[in-house]
Design a protein that fits this description.
The chain is α+β, with helices and mostly antiparallel strands. The protein has helices at about 1-5, 10-20, 25-30, 35-40, 45-55; strands at about 60-65, 70-80, 85-95, 105-110, 115-120, 125-130, 135-140, 150-160, 165-175, 185-190, 200, 210, 215-220, 225, 230, 240. InterPro entries: F-box-assoc_dom_typ1 (IPR006527), F-box-assoc_interact_dom (IPR017451), F-box-like_dom_sf (IPR036047), F-box_dom (IPR001810), SCF_F-box_component (IPR050796).
Length: about 240
């Protein structure tokens, strides 16, 4: 019996290569096989490797808001091989969230995880990280910087490449002056999935302002990018886009 058991042994690197070839839904089921598989499959390095080698089909992730029922619909459209310019509807994803006033803002995405913010009209109500492929999500705690004076804020979402398995959300809060401009540097705080708390960033002075109402971010090569402009000292006029 011992000899038979040893004959079924696979080196860890072989197990990793096999698991990397499986679809995401199968991997989620296999996390309950044993603790070592759970640690491997949920590790940042494995998720990144699996995402990188997964064949990228010509597909669009589309969001539609239905005003009649005040609800969002998330769908996947794939490019037809026979009709390359025609999008065939393939599936509507289960969206388990309700937005109080309208629709969520998509802050950004990283490794298949979407960051959603319920902040219509500038009032933050909820923050959610959602993996639609495996239908798992977490609701984040509310940020710690909440000025009473007029202000605006922006988010940036991505993965910390210096950590083994950490996703982070950065928040910049700009206070408005009497002229409703943003002359002062923003207050900054960062939320870490690993720590589970918001941490204020001290000693970093950002001299540009993110474009309000149109703000969006993209996470590329380990860095969050925004569209921003510089403000002059005598009036807060638009100087340049960066």
């Amino acid at each position: 019996m011992a000899a038979d058991s040893e004959s079924f042994y696979f080196p860890p690197e072989v197990v990793t290569e096999i698991l990397l070839k499986l679809p995401a839904k199968s991997l989620i089921r296999f996390t309950v096989v044993c603790k070592s598989w759970y640690s491997l499959i949920t590790s940042f390095s494995f998720i990144s490797a699996h995402f990188a080698q997964t064949p990228q089909s010509d597909a669009l992730f589309v969001r539609r808001y239905d005003s009649s029922c005040n609800r969002e619909h998330y769908c996947l459209f794939e490019d037809s091989k026979n009709r390359p310019f025609y999008l065939n509807f393939t599936s509507e994803l289960h969206f388990p969230f309700n937005c109080s006033l309208g629709y969520f803002r998509i802050v950004g995405s990283c490794n298949g995880i979407l960051c959603l913010s319920d902040d219509l009209f500038g009032e933050l109500r909820s923050l959610i990280l959602w993996n639609p492929s495996i239908q798992k999500f977490i609701t984040l705690p509310m940020p710690s910087i909440n000025p009473q004076s007029p202000h605006m804020f922006v988010f940036g979402f991505g993965a910390d490449l210096r950590e083994s398995d950490d996703y982070k959300l950065v928040r910049l809060v700009y206070r408005k002056n009497d002229d409703v401009m943003y002359n002062d540097p923003p207050e900054i705080e960062i939320y870490s999935i690993n720590s589970g708390v918001w941490r204020r960033v001290i000693g970093v002075e950002i001299k540009h302002c993110i474009v309000e109402f149109m703000w969006s971010q993209v996470f590329v090569n380990g860095v969050v990018h925004w569209i921003a402009y510089g403000v002059v000292a005598n009036g807060g006029d638009l100087r340049s886009l960066v």
